[in-house]
Design goal:
The structure holds two protein chains of two kinds. By secondary structure, chain A is an alpha/beta fold. Chain A has nine helices and ten strands. Chain A has helices at 46-53, 97-107, 112-125, 141-153, 171-186, 198-204, 222-229, 234-241, 247-263, and strands spanning 8-17, 20-30, 35-39, 61-66, 69-70, 82-85, 159-163, 190-194, 207-212, 215-220. Chain A has a six-stranded mixed β-sheet, sandwiched between helices. In chain A, α2 (97-107) crosses α3. Chain B is mainly α. Chain B has two domains: 5-297, no CATH class; 309-545, no CATH class. Chain B is 74% helix and 0% strand. Chain B contains 22 helices and no strands. The radius of gyration of chain B is 27 Å and the shape is globular. Mean pLDDT of chain B is 80; it is low at 47-55. Chain A binds chain B through residues 54-56, 76-80, 82, 84, 86, 88, 90-96, 98-99, 102-104, 106-109, 112, 116, 130-131, 133-135, 138, and chain B through 195-196, 297-302, 304, 307-308, 311-312, 315, 325-326, 328-329, 332-333, 336-337, 340-342, 406-408, 410-411, 413-414, 416-421, 486.
Chain lengths: 264, 551
């Protein structure tokens, strides 16, 4: 499917938890085939944005359109074309991967045969094929993460929301996954990538959005950001834009406290 | 930090640990932490699992064990030969302590997480394993002593101090024997199966214990009528493999002066075997045991072709009960979850088992005395005992709120990201799956037994009770807070269970009274059945109409 319109359009998005303003008016237009690196310090509002886009939170202000339709209207059809890897790997882990993926896949309208064929092959490609019929509770952290990734991609979605998707994956699997993201984007899939690992975001993103205190403070490709902020790495840009420059002093004091503790 | 009395007693045996090369001070610190954590763990034996997480959970369970001990004591009182009495006493104690060990201390014995915390610290292996075994021993001793205390005191009064002496010594042997036996059992299971299988087996033991507890209460008054003591002990070769006999034999020798060779052999076995196995455990099994524990994290591959056939069959069954694909998916998801969630099983199955057993126990109450089997059956058939099925119904429906609970309840985020247009299908599928999986078979089993006793003449009554149950289930569902399936922790699901027990009990009681009235006036129940079916159709619509969005 080709969209000339923005695939995701956010206008003046605001969100409050009790009295705390988490999002203070966000405007975003995302086009098909982009890999968005969505970064920001802890508590900046990244996860909240993603949850609103997924329809998990509906008490927001502003307008959110996905595939050109306002999601507040209650039509959930867009969810058929969305995949999501959450930050915390909470799964019904007493089920086997086979049972869990079967459950998810059927809700996306796939047949059991189709799911089995796809899921088992995907697990094999990720090097965990032998665990397909085992209980998820016996999985290692990396295996669980691979399962979450497969569960989010099984129905071949057009938009992917990934929240720290590499956590627990070994270096080889990370390389496979980055490659997958690249070819998915070139096929016209849109990827919303949220992470604290700046090196990865810097490499894979075609566009980087930096959120701080519920506001967008930077938006553009890595080259553009570098040009604007005169810093060499995304990490340094991140530090500069979030107004954080005392890391050296804090580190020094931390080490001082350690040594002081030893003397006593 | 809190200092424990057990540890102060343990301090007296410091020299023993130091001789074994254990760093006693470190071990004591580990034990202190472990005891503190145990206070916050809820043992299986405390059924009503209150919400207070702190203090006294163990003491509370000790009260229960003390009560069990009183039951065991009852066997000391009558004037039967000591050998038989002690046999029963030890059989019950072995059963109790063994089940407690498996149900509540398996987690301690099989803990591999503590390795992640302790091994990187500068502590040697010997100290870690000493802490582990001492930890279990402390508990097992306390529990064994509590269970044995009433029988111990009663025995001293009845048979003198020598009885007390033998009994006391044997309690130590018993505890040692049980630890060894359990470890050996786990060792063997882990040798042949994977960790998941072992966890399943432990889960079944836990369910078994819960059901056993309920049964003990029920059978308490009837035990003495059922047991017949007129048998004479003639040892066979396999007698030497039965542990309670080993422990019972010394009493016959020392207190009743029966110096027969069988009793002497049995007594020797009773002393030697626990000691041999204790040494064997610490020297041979323990090191391998710890190594084998790594297997706990493994899970074997199942036979796929069988599984795939089963999945296809499961889908056919689910489709039969469901009106659309989403409903069918949730029907199967619910049943899979019940199959796999061990904690959910532990909460559900004892209750179901009791629901099935309860009317049968009421029937059993008629037996005993001097009447023949035929006379009793005649009386049962002339009564209306099948109305006790309403009791079964009350207990069965109390499990409905549990549908909202699961250990992995945090995984419920998935509902919100999935493209589900009609939320009613989630609830419909889950409720149907739950009823078909658990409630239907229990009800069918009980009705089958009553049909066998009363004949097919009561079929309309069985049907009426069935439809009344379905109606009650829908009412309960309609009035409950409609949490998504498996989206709550067990504590919050528990509150609703109590309300359901009273409400459901009231409904079942009223239905039983109405039903009884129809029978006593010899009125056909057919119009009543039709009325209930009509109400089911109406309420089913109302109950699901009120669901607009995710709760």
């Amino acid at each position: 499917m080709e969209y000339t319109e923005p695939i995701i359009s956010i206008k003046n998005l605001k969100m409050k938890y009790d009295t705390k303003e988490v999002l203070k008016g966000i405007d975003l237009q995302i086009h098909q085939g982009q890999i968005i690196g969505y970064i920001g310090p802890n508590g900046a509002g990244k996860s909240t944005t993603v949850k609103i886009l997924l329809g998990m939170i509906d008490s927001y202000e502003g307008e959110v359109k996905i595939f050109g339709k306002d999601i507040a209207e209650g039509d959930i059809d867009y969810k058929f074309k969305i995949g999501y890897v959450p930050e915390t790997a909470e799964i019904y882990d007493s089920l086997s991967a086979h049972e869990y993926l079967g459950f998810i896949g059927e809700i996306y309208g796939m047949t059991l045969e189709e799911i089995d064929k796809k899921a088992q092959r995907l697990m094999e490609l990720f090097g965990v094929g032998e665990a397909y019929y085992a209980r998820i509770s016996s999985f290692s952290k990396g295996m669980k993460q691979k399962l979450l990734i497969i569960a989010s991609l099984l129905h071949n979605p057009d938009i992917l929301f990934l929240d720290e998707p590499l956590s627990g994956l070994d270096a080889n699997s990370v390389m496979i996954f980055k490659e997958i993201l690249g070819s998915l984007a070139s096929q016209g899939k849109t990827i919303f990538y949220s992470s604290h690992i700046m090196e990865v975001v810097e490499k894979i993103s075609s566009r980087i959005i930096l959120l701080n205190n519920g506001e967008i403070v930077a938006d553009g490709s890595f080259e553009e950001l570098k040009h604007k902020n005169l810093e060499g790495s995304l990490e340094a840009i991140f530090n500069q834009l979030t107004g954080f420059n005392q890391y050296k002093e804090i580190a020094e004091e931390f080490v001082d406290v350690l040594q002081g503790g030893e003397k006593e | 930090m809190k200092d424990f009395r057990q540890l102060k007693i343990l301090d007296k045996f410091q020299f023993f640990y130091k001789k074994l090369g254990v760093n006693y001070n470190i071990m004591r610190k580990i034990l202190q932490i472990k005891l503190l954590m145990d206070q916050r763990r809820i043992p299986t034996v405390v059924m009503e699992g209150s919400d207070q997480q702190d203090e006294n959970m163990f003491k509370k369970s000790l009260l229960m064990y003390g009560f069990m001990g009183l039951v065991i004591m009852l066997f000391i009182l009558p004037d039967f030969p000591l050998f038989f009495k002690m046999n029963i006493v030890y059989a019950m104690m072995l059963f109790m302590v063994m089940t407690v060990m498996i149900a509540d201390f398996s987690s301690v014995l099989l803990d591999i997480q503590e390795k992640n915390i302790l091994l990187p610290k500068p502590i040697d292996n010997r100290t870690i394993s000493a802490a582990k075994t001492t930890h279990i021993l402390l508990y097992l001793m306390t529990i064994t002593m509590t269970i044995a205390a009433p029988a111990f005191i009663a025995g001293i009064f009845k048979h003198g101090l020598l009885f007390g002496g033998i009994f006391f010594l044997q309690l130590f042997l018993l505890s040692g024997f049980i630890i060894l036996f359990t470890s050996l059992l786990y060792f063997l299971i882990l040798l042949f199966f994977d960790g998941e299988k072992l966890k399943d087996i432990i889960n079944y033991f836990q369910i078994f214990l819960s059901v056993g507890m309920i049964l003990v209460y029920q059978l308490l008054g009837r035990v003495f009528q059922i047991v017949d003591y007129d048998t004479i002990f003639t040892p066979r070769w396999w007698s030497y493999f039965i542990p309670p006999l080993w422990f019972a034999a010394p009493f016959s020798i020392l207190l009743e002066n029966q110096y027969t060779p069988q009793y002497i052999y049995l007594s020797i076995l009773g002393v030697i075997l626990p000691l041999v196995v204790l040494v064997f455990y610490f020297k041979v099994v323990a090191p391998h045991f710890e190594k084998n524990l790594q297997k706990l994290q493994q899970s074997n591959r199942k036979k796929t072709y069988l599984l795939e056939r089963r999945v296809r069959l499961h889908k056919k069954i689910a489709d039969l009960f469901s009106s659309n694909a989403i409903e069918s998916t949730f029907f199967r998801f619910t049943q899979n979850m019940i199959n796999n969630e061990r904690n959910l099983k532990l909460k559900l199955y004892p209750n179901l088992a009791f629901a099935v057993i309860m009317p049968l126990i009421t029937l059993m109450a008629n037996f005993g005395g001097n009447r023949s089997f035929e006379e009793v059956m005649e009386e049962i058939v002339s009564g209306r005992y099948y109305l006790f099925i309403y009791g079964t119904i009350t207990l069965l429906v109390t499990s409905i709120p549990m549908l909202a609970a699961a250990d992995g309840y945090r995984a419920a985020w998935i509902y919100r990201t999935l493209p589900i247009r009609n939320y009613r299908s989630i609830y419909k599928g889950a409720l149907k799956g739950f009823v078909v999986k658990l409630i239907l078979p229990s009800y069918l089993f009980v009705s089958l037994i009553f049909l066998m006793i009363y004949g097919f003449g009561i079929l309309p009554d069985i049907l009426l009770m069935f439809f009344n149950m379905i109606l009650l289930i829908i009412v309960i569902f309609h009035l409950s807070s409609k949490h998504l399936p498996f989206s709550q922790d067990f504590a919050s699901a528990k509150y609703s269970t109590i309300g359901v027990l009273f409400g459901g009990g009231g409904f079942a009681g009223a239905s039983a009274a109405t039903h009884g009235f129809f029978i006593s006036r010899n009125i056909s129940v057919l119009p009543y059945i039709i009325l209930v079916i009509l109400m089911i159709f109406i309420l089913w619509r109302i109950a699901f109409k009120s669901i607009e969005k995710l709760a």
